[in-house]
Each structure stands twice: as structure tokens, then as C-alpha cells.
Specification:
Blueprint (H helix, E strand, L loop, with lengths): L10 E8 L2 H12 L2 E7 L2 E8 L2 E8 L10 E7 L3 H10 L3 E9 L3 E7 L5 E7 L14 E8 L2 H12 L2 E4 L7 E6 L2 E8 L10 E7 L3 H10 L3 E9 L3 E7 L5 E7 L5
Parallel strand pairs: 1-4, 5-8, 9-12, 13-16
Antiparallel strand pairs: 1-5, 2-3, 3-4, 6-7, 7-8, 9-13, 10-11, 11-12, 14-15, 15-16
Pfam family, one: Glyoxalase
Organism: Shewanella litoralis
InterPro entries: Anthracycline_SecMetBiosynth, Glyas_Bleomycin-R_OHBP_Dase, Glyas_Fos-R_dOase_dom, VOC_core
Length: about 260
């Protein structure tokens, strides 16, 4: 499905910062069949990842001043006014790491962290709204916050992005869904003791037609399996992976709601 616009709070862009641009690009192209449009930058390339010419995300080689960070994906959330939203981040106890600043005619952005340190970005689109395809294989379909203080996170993201929340029907643990209007755009789960010292973070989920087949392909390409293929009742089957450079992401084959 083609996407024409985004509302405040909807995930609208994903971006991979990687230690090995060549290897990272080869991995994700082989796994998801993405095309790549490489745009030169002073320190390498900014690559638009595409399906049939439509942008669905991006990746870039991490510069010297970022090499202390692991390879990672960043999710961008659409906002109506990036300056207002960045100020709300600070008022709510988060930090603005970079920006707000314009990205040419594409739009304006700010890179932020919430009070627990989870990184995310704000995007006020101008000529580039963000991801151009949705509700199809190999595109972003869900984002999920894993954190230790879910009550504080509800307060923070409701203030910054305007979210409403709803508890999902999960038998074994509490799972919160983030809503923009009537649409669930993501979720949140509490990090328990079994997570160890893993930091709070946002996780991207990419839709695939067959979770087990995609998992096997990812493993053959050098990915590490963090969570094996697992069924979520009434939702689908998912797995959590680390790419060969250490960037984590999830894949999920969703059940057909009409079935």
C-alpha cells in the first residue's frame, strides 16, 4: 500500500547506522530484497532503501564520532512541529541530542532520548514524508518500546507524541499498545530481571510472508537469533535477530484478520 501522509505520532521512518556499510547493505538487500539508492556524503554514503523505487528506510556508515555506539536502527516519529515537540521532550524529562535542524527541503528532525535513555527521532516532513509503503511484506509494520518504568514511559510519550494507550489481551504479561486516534501504531513491554543489563530501547518489526523461511535466510546470511520463531496468539509468528554487524530487529508474519 502506498502511503501519502503521516499523522502526529505515527512511526514514519527507520534508519540504520552501521559500522560496515557495504556488508550491512548486502545483508538487508539479500534478506528483504530492498533496492538501494546511494547518495554520496562526506564520510561515505546515505543509502535510501527502496521497494520498486519507493523509499522504505535508509542506512549510513557511522562516522568516527559515533563508533563507540553499536550498529543500531533508529525509528522516527512524525510530528506537526519539530520545535514544539523537541521542547516537549525536554519538559517531559527526555533529552534532545541533536537538532532540531532542517534536512534540506526534505524536512526537519531532532534526535532524542526518553528519560530511560531510549533513542528515537522526530520528523516534520516537507518534501519527504518518510516511508512510502506499508501493510506489505518487507516493510515496517510495528515498533515496540522495551523499558523498565512503563508508567513513566506512558506519561512521557503521551505528552510528546499525543499517544493514547490501551492494555492488550496478553495472558502471560502486561503489554501496552500506543494509539494514534483509532490506530494502534506500536507497543510497550516491561523489561524484567531476565533482561539483565540490556538498555531500554525501541524495536522495529518488519513484516514477512513466512517467519520461519525469513529466519532461515537471515541465519544463512550471518544473522544471530536472539528469540527463535515464536507464535503470538491471534497476531502472528515472530523472531528477534541481530544482523552481522550487531544491529537488532524483528521479523513477523502476521495472521490475516479476515481468515
Amino acid at each position: 500500500m502506498k502511503v501519502q501522509q503521516y499523522q502526529q505520532g505515527q512511526p514514519c521512518w527507520i534508519e540504520l547506522a552501521t559500522h560496515d556499510w557495504d556488508a550491512g547493505k548486502a545483508f538487508y538487500q539479500a534478506l528483504f530484497g530492498w533496492e538501494a539508492d546511494d547518495m554520496p556524503m562526506p564520510e561515505g554514503h546515505y543509502t535510501m532503501l527502496q521497494i520498486e523505487g519507493d523509499d522504505i528506510g535508509a542506512m549510513y556508515q557511522m562516522p568516527e564520532d559515533m563508533l563507540a555506539l553499536p550498529t543500531h536502527w533508529t525509528v522516527y516519529f512524525a510530528v506537526d512541529d519539530v520545535n514544539v515537540s523537541a521542547e516537549l521532550v525536554k519538559q517531559a524529562g527526555g533529552q534532545v541530542i541533536a537538532g532540531p535542524h532542517s534536512v534540506g527541503d526534505a524536512g526537519s528532525m531532532a534526535l532524542c532520548t526518553d528519560p530511560e535513555g531510549s533513542r528515537f527521532a522526530l520528523w516534520q516532513g516537507q518534501d519527504h514524508i518518510g516511508i512510502k509503503r506499508a501493510q506489505e511484506a518487507n516493510t515496517l509494520c510495528w515498533v515496540e518500546l522495551a523499558c523498565r518504568d512503563t508508567a513513566a514511559a506512558k506519561t512521557f510519550y503521551s505528552k510528546v507524541l499525543g499517544y493514547q494507550t490501551k492494555l492488550a489481551d496478553m495472558a502471560d504479561f502486561e503489554y501496552t499498545e500506543w494509539y494514534v486516534g483509532e490506530q494502534a501504531v506500536g507497543g510497550m513491554m516491561e523489561m524484567t530481571a531476565e533482561w539483565g543489563d540490556a538498555p531500554a530501547h525501541w524495536m522495529n518489526y518488519f513484516a514477512v510472508d513466512d517467519c520461519d523461511a525469513a529466519l532461515a535466510k537471515a541465519k544463512s546470511l550471518g544473522a544471530t537469533v536472539c528469540v527463535p520463531a515464536t507464535d503470538i496468539p491471534n497476531v502472528g509468528r515472530f523472531s528477534v535477530l541481530n544482523d552481522p554487524q550487531g544491529g537488532f530487529f524483528s521479523i513477523i508474519s502476521l495472521l490475516d484478520p479476515a481468515a
